[in-house]
Amino acid sequence: MIHSPAHSPDRPWRGVLVxxxxxxxxxxSVDHDLCRALRLAxxxxx
Length: 46
Prior knowledge:
This protein is mainly alpha-helical. It has one helix at residues 32-40.
């Protein structure tokens, strides 16, 4: 089996990328106040 340098079994796991439409704070919690403000302003319903 051939492995590329970026995906070698000798290298540690790098993590997961996550995509969300929710506004997040710096601590990665959901900013519910901003969600509410966006809904009131006519934005997408979250």
